[in-house]
Specification:
Helix content is 9%, strand content 37%. The chain is mainly beta. The strands form 15 sheets. A seven-stranded antiparallel sheet has the order 9-7-4-5-59-56-54. A six-stranded mixed sheet has the order 18-27-26-21-24-23, with no helix packed on it. A hairpin with a 4-residue loop joins strand 60 and strand 61. The longest helix has 24 residues. The chain is flat, with a radius of gyration of 54 Å. About 13% of the residues have low confidence.
């Protein structure tokens, strides 16, 4: 093949490659409103990264470039935005909270609308996340949902949850079925002919006559089997019957009050356990027979212990009998029964009042040898007497027991819990027709009966058991209802048995809802200084129900106290008291924090009792700041040598100007007599005095002295005293102008902190007064300011001396060499600091009483007073934003003090910001324990519902821009290849023409 052909083939291939984008990648870009189900990929555990899954999102082909993102934490109704990137990395602060992803279509890409998905709660580890997902699957199955339809798994690429698209603009989606806060709508009720309000077995159309003694009454609510088929079925020991199970389920779904009823079924369906007959003295007890007891109500039944007189029966006390469940018990006669016929009513009683009973029959016959002896004794009669057949007939009835006392009833009762039985026995020689008595106050009914014209046939030795209970509607009275129930016979008036029944009906006790709390007095927590870190110990409070009705405890929550949950929420009369604890919170401000806890009954809304709380936070002890002030300098004038009259003594006052106690030491001097201090221990604000007087016999000279008052606080304190002694005059010549003394300037006090280190700023005088032999005159002073210890940059309180040299005026001589150096004490106050005002704390970005909707993202900033102090000095204060709260408290670790949130539920809310006061100690800011709160109240309404309008399709008539294919493959590469191919082909053609 020629080179030109090879090259032509290569060029053709390149041209085909350039056409690939139009043939392969030219797919339509996604366009329209977001729809379908959004999912989240990633493990819902700390440290994992989550991203959006568009596999079930419409329109198809959606990518990260078509939407914007909003990742939020859901805390109740509060949504706090934590990210807007394509992915979100789970942080420790997210633990325990669901994450909400909201995507919004970018209209510039042709996509509009929103979709929201809520995940399960964030777990600490991947294993815990997977376990939680499995748990939610099981919960979904338990309520009849398809767990595969709403997946919320936590595997590396699993679907965290899924949601339908928003139909309301800006409205946050409620969590899916895996979330506990979603309300699942109940399914519509389905009518069913075989589901009844109770579990009575319904008779078929061809109703058969009931088997003899087969109906067993249970509080008049439940009947036993109605036909032979049902009797066979009831004989089996079952754990649950379908009808009762359905009934319990219906009652549960309708949230009805539980009902209590039960039924008993014997193995033969007759309702009677017949143990046959044995001879007296029997040693082998008849075999036990079984009875099945079924819970036909909707509530659990708790059976009491049973102990029949003539029979033994199994107890049902292992566990409550659940609704629809059955239990099989055994019954058999006791050993050693005397001859006679036993027809006992075996009654199983429950704590709920649903009693169930059945009859047990057993006959013990007299031995044959005893019968023969009795017959022989009857035949041994006096031959001279003629037997009267009528005299041999004996009619005798007995009752056991003969007295039936019933428990007291309360007027208005609707049900009698206790049913008593009495057994009437024919102990005569003839059968009798037993006449059941009629009663005004008691209901009497045979347990099992054989009727004959309304009366009961009772054979010789036979027994009949009756149930007796007070009638409904008996009114209250002071004495009991007592009635003799006479069981008679038609055959003889002597054949009767009397049973005395009695019951007391009391007046209904008024219903009261009351409670008491202990201790009765206030809970005293004492006093602590502001800034305390440990709260006083919690104190217990007990609540006791003193009324007649149950109470449901509700406690008020004082703002400054932590109130624990009560040990029991519901207290019935006679229950053990409930206990809760109370403890003051930490960080409370100075003041009286007395308050009251109200104990309220939720059922009635009445306040039952109150607990008074007392706690005080005092001002903290100030930092020790000792200080003393002393009387200004003392001037004692001038005396000539040999003076006999001393200058008058002068008093010096020392005052404690600090805030701590100071102990003074007795001052001393050689040139002056110092009096005893009036007090040596000075509390803040106290003072002490002492006297000063020059001593006698001083020689010529200037006695200028600082008398120091030493103290345990090492506070500089002294008083400057001056006394001049001149040389005694010896002639009467012309008086010379000689220096006799210098008056020391007064001390300078209370200069502001930071005063400049200059003579003028320190208020040092330019002249002082001097005394000469010709009188007083002024002399200038040169102050050594630089040589003083004063540091203008220090924030501490400073007391220092500035020395000066007096320059004598012309003509003034100093023959006595009096010192011309003087000193002045100056006090510069300490820096008090700039006090930031809590009232200057601000919240910006959210309007007070503002109105927003559920689609609004609210971003606010907390600005604390003094936070703009970039060059603090010791003592400065500021308020640092610490936390914010709407429904839950969130904290800030540092700047910026801002947050963004969105509320998904309409209502009125309050944003509360807590600021903590800090004080600069010279090197760093320290918390003082003082806090301030600022609040903003705002209202959130439901966002308006917007109907998304699909974007119009682009046609050739309205298209003004290039078609978006949704393919990100770079097209420029193929354009370049196409241009190169065309150039090569053109070059080949030109070359061939030239060659020809």
């Amino acid at each position: 093949m020629k080179k030109s052909r090879v090259l032509a083939v290569v060029m053709a291939v390149l041209m085909m490659v350039t056409l690939l984008p139009s043939m392969v990648f030219a797919t339509a870009a996604p366009s329209g409103t977001l729809d379908g189900k959004l999912k989240v990929k990633g493990t819902l555990a700390i440290g994992s990264t989550l991203s959006a899954d568009y596999s079930k999102v419409k329109p198809e082909g959606i990518t990260d470039d078509n939407v914007s993102f909003s990742w939020s934490l859901k805390d109740g109704d509060l949504l706090t935005e934590v990210g807007t990137d394509k992915t979100y990395k789970i942080d420790e602060k997210d633990l325990g909270l669901p994450i909400v992803l909201k995507i919004t279509g970018k209209e510039e890409t042709g996509v509009s609308g929103e979709l929201t998905v809520t995940t399960q709660e964030v777990s600490e580890t991947e294993e815990e996340a997977k376990a939680l997902a499995e748990k939610k699957k099981e919960e979904a199955k338990a309520v009849g949902e398809d767990p595969d339809a709403e997946e919320s798994e936590a595997s590396a690429d699993s679907e965290s949850s899924e949601n339908t698209p928003d139909t309301e603009a800006g409205t946050s989606e409620e969590p899916d079925s895996a979330q506990p806060e979603e309300t699942i709508e109940p399914a519509e009720e389905t009518e069913s002919a075989d589901v009844q309000e109770n579990t009575d077995v319904q008779e078929p159309a061809d109703t058969q006559e009931p088997a003899e003694n087969s109906v067993i009454e249970v509080n008049g609510e439940q009947s036993g089997p109605q036909n032979a088929d049902e009797a066979d079925t009831s004989g089996d020991s079952q754990t649950e019957t379908p009808d009762s199970a359905d009934t319990a389920a219906d009652a549960s779904e309708k949230n009805e009050e539980p009902t209590y009823s039960a039924s008993a079924y014997t193995e033969d369906g007759s309702g009677i356990l017949d143990f046959g007959s044995v001879e007296e003295g029997y040693t082998e007890i008849p075999e036990a027979q079984m009875v099945t007891i079924t819970n036909n109500g909707t509530g659990d039944l708790n059976f009491k212990e049973i102990a029949p007189e003539n029979f033994m029966a199994a107890d049902i006390n292992d566990a409550p009998l659940k609704s629809g469940e059955s239990v099989t018990v055994w019954v058999k006669p006791r050993e050693g029964l005397k001859a006679g016929e036993y027809k006992d009513l075996i009654t199983y009683q429950t704590e709920e009042g649903a009693d169930v009973f059945f009859e047990a029959d057993f006959t013990v016959k007299e031995p044959e040898n005893k019968k023969a002896e009795d017959h022989e004794n009857n035949e041994q009669t006096d031959p001279g007497e003629t037997s009267d057949p009528a005299a041999e007939k004996i009619y005798k009835l007995t009752a056991d027991p003969t007295e039936l006392p019933f428990d007291d009833l309360t007027a208005g009762y609707e049900k009698v819990e206790t049913t008593s039985t009495v057994t009437i026995k024919n102990e005569g020689t003839e059968a009798v027709t037993l006449v059941q008595p009629e009663s005004k106050f008691f209901d009497i009914a045979p347990v099992s009966e054989v009727e004959s014209s309304g009366n009961i046939q009772l054979a010789q030795g036979g027994e009949q058991t009756f149930t007796v209970q007070p009638k409904l509607g008996l009114s209250a009275k002071d004495d009991p209802y007592v009635e003799e129930l006479v069981f008679a016979s038609d055959e003889s008036t002597e054949a009767s048995a009397t049973v005395t029944a009695s019951v007391m009906v009391k007046t209904e006790t008024p219903k009261t809802v009351t409670a008491t709390v202990k201790p009765e007095g206030p809970l005293k927590f004492g006093t602590l200084e502001q800034g305390y870190e440990t709260a006083p110990d919690a104190q217990p409070v007990t609540v006791e129900n003193t009324g007649t009705e149950a109470i449901r405890i509700q406690l008020s929550a004082p703002e400054d106290y932590e109130v624990g949950e009560p040990s029991a929420e519901v207290l019935n009369p006679g229950d053990k008291a409930a206990t809760f604890t109370v403890q003051p919170k930490t960080g409370l401000q100075v003041g009286d924090h007395s308050d009251t806890i109200s104990v309220t009954d939720q059922n009635t809304g009445n306040t039952l009792a109150e607990v008074r709380l007392e706690f005080t936070v005092s001002e903290p002890e100030p930092e020790p700041n000792p200080g003393l002030s002393v009387t200004d300098s003392l001037e004692f004038g001038t005396k000539e040598e040999g003076y006999k009259e001393l200058p008058d003594a002068k008093k010096v006052t020392v005052t404690n100007t600090g805030n701590t106690k100071i102990v003074l030491k007795q001052p001393s001097s050689n040139a002056y007599t110092i009096g005893t201090l009036s007090a040596t221990e000075l509390e803040a604000g106290d003072n002490a005095t002492f006297s000063v007087q020059p001593v006698s016999g001083l020689s010529q000279g200037e006695y200028l002295e600082d008398i120091v008052i030493a103290n345990d606080a090492n506070v500089e304190a002294y008083v400057n005293v001056h006394f001049s002694v001149t040389k005694k005059k010896t002639d009467n010549g012309k008086k010379a102008n000689n220096l006799t003394g210098i008056k020391k300037p007064s001390d300078i006090k209370d200069l502001p902190n930071g005063t400049q280190k200059t003579q003028k700023a320190l208020k040092l005088p330019g002249t002082v007064k001097i005394t000469t032999t010709k009188g007083e005159q002024k002399a200038s002073v040169k102050w050594d300011v630089k040589g003083s210890s004063y540091d203008p940059s220090s924030a501490e309180r400073q007391i220092f001396n500035v020395k000066g040299t007096v320059i004598l005026p012309e003509g003034v001589k100093n023959p006595n060499k009096i010192s011309t150096v003087i000193a002045v004490s100056i006090t510069v106050n300490g820096y008090q600091g700039t006090e930031a005002a809590a009232s200057d704390n601000k919240i910006t970005g959210i309007d007070s009483n503002g109105k927003y909707d559920t689609n609004t993202k609210i971003t606010f900033t907390a600005s604390g007073a003094g936070m703009d102090n970039t060059n603090p000095r010791k003592g400065d204060t500021r308020y640092q934003p610490k936390s914010w709260k709407i429904t839950e408290t969130r904290t800030w670790d540092g700047e910026p003090y801002t947050a963004t949130f969105r509320v998904s539920k309409p209502g009125k809310y309050t944003l509360k910001i807590t600021f903590g006061q800090q004080k600069y100690d010279g090197s760093s800011w320290k918390d003082t324990g003082t806090q301030s709160e600022s609040t903003v109240t705002f209202t959130v309404s439901q966002a308006a519902v917007l109907t998304a309008t699909p974007s119009p399709a682009v046609t050739q008539t309205n298209q003004k821009s290039a078609v978006q294919t949704g393919d990100s493959t770079p097209i420029m590469t193929f354009v370049i290849i196409l241009i190169v191919a065309v150039v090569c082909i053109g070059g080949i053609l030109v070359y061939r023409r030239k060659k020809k």
